[in-house]
C-alpha cells in the first residue's frame, strides 16, 4: 500500500531545515470598538482568556446535523473531506484531561482563532498523530490533505463555521477525556460522515452504518462472559465503516476489565473516507498497537489482514527513519551553533 502524498510532504518538511513563515494575520482593523464577544475576532488570537464559548454535549444525530448544516450554510461546497477533517482533528486534539475538565476553556481558545490559524493547527495535529501512529494516519490522510491546499475565503469560512459548530456540540466533551472508555462513548466520525454524505451517495456505496444500539447489542451477544480470553483474540470486520462494531466491543471488554490492547483489531473498508474515519477512531478509542485499518474490497480481495500489518510495519519503519534524520539534523545544527560560538570567541 503506497504512502499518502500528505505523508510524503510531511517527510519532506521534516527533512527541511528551512523555517516556514506563517500566513500574515488579518489586520487589527477587523476588530470593532468596545468589548468584543465575537470568538473569531483577530484581537483574541492566541490569548489565554478568550470570550466564553458555550458548549454542550449533543447526541450523535444532533452533532452530525449541526456540523453538516454549518458547512453547507457557510460554504455550500459538496466537499465533505474538509468538514469531516475538522471534526477528526478536534477529536485527535492532544490535550486530554480527566473528565474532559479542560474542554470548555480549550473550546473557547480554539473558537477564538481565525480560519488560517485553525488550518495550521489542524495540520499540526495530523503531523503529531502521524508520528505516533503513521500507519493509521496514512489511511486517515483523505481527511487532512486539504490542510495543504491554498483554501479560498469560502472554504475558510466553512472551516471556521464547522469548528464552532463541532465545539458547541461538545466534540471535546466526548474526545477530551483522558479515559479511553469515555472517549469511546460515541462514534462522532460516523454521525459526521453520514450527515455530510448525500443520501444517494450512501445508497450508491451500499453504505449503511449500524445504529449504535444495535452494535452494542451485537457486541454483548458476541462477547458473552467467559467467551473471550484476557488476551490473544483476533477480531476482523470486513465491512467496518467507521468502526462502530469495534467501538461497542471495546466498551464491552473494558466493562469486564479486559484491555483492548491485548487483542488484535482489523478493520477493512471499501470507502476511503469511512476508512479514514475508522483510522481516526482507532486512535481516539485507543484500541491499541495491534489495531489496523485497511482500504480495500473484502468481497473481491478477501482477507486483507496481511496487507494491513505489512503496511503498519512499513510505515513505522518510515517514521523511525524520519526520527533519525530529524535527530541528526538537530545534532548538526547544535554543532554548527557551537562552532560559530567558538569561532566568534577566538576572533574576538
Task: Report the total helices.
Answer: 16
Q: What can be said about the biggest beta sheet?
A: 3 strands, parallel
The main sheet orders its strands as 1-2-3
Could you tell me the strand content as a percent range? under 5%
> What's the average pLDDT?
83
Based on Cα principal axes, name the global outline: globular
Please state the structural category.
Answer: mainly alpha
Q: Are there runs of 5+ residues with pLDDT below 50, and where?
A: 13-34, 202-206
Range of helix content? 55-70%
Number of strands: 3
Please tag this protein with its features.
348 residues; 3-stranded parallel β-sheet; mainly alpha; 16 helices
Write the layout of secondary structure elements.
Layout: H1 5-15, H2 60-74, H3 81-92, H4 103-111, H5 115-132, H6 134-140, H7 153-168, H8 171-175, H9 180-183, H10 188-196, H11 199-205, H12 212-222, E1 234-237, H13 244-255, E2 264-269, H14 272-284, E3 291-295, H15 298-301, H16 305-347
Parallel strand pairs: 1-2, 2-3
Helix pairs in contact: 2-7, 2-10, 3-5, 3-7, 3-10, 3-14, 5-6, 5-7, 6-14, 6-16, 12-13
What does this structure look like?
The protein is mainly α and 348 residues long. The protein contains 16 helices and 3 strands. The protein has helices at 5-15, 60-74, 81-92, 103-111, 115-132, 134-140, 153-168, 171-175, 180-183, 188-196, 199-205, 212-222, 244-255, 272-284, 298-301, 305-347, and strands at residues 234-237, 264-269, 291-295. The chain has a 3-stranded parallel β-sheet with strand order 1-2-3, with helices on both faces. β1, α13 (244-255) and β2 form a beta-alpha-beta unit.
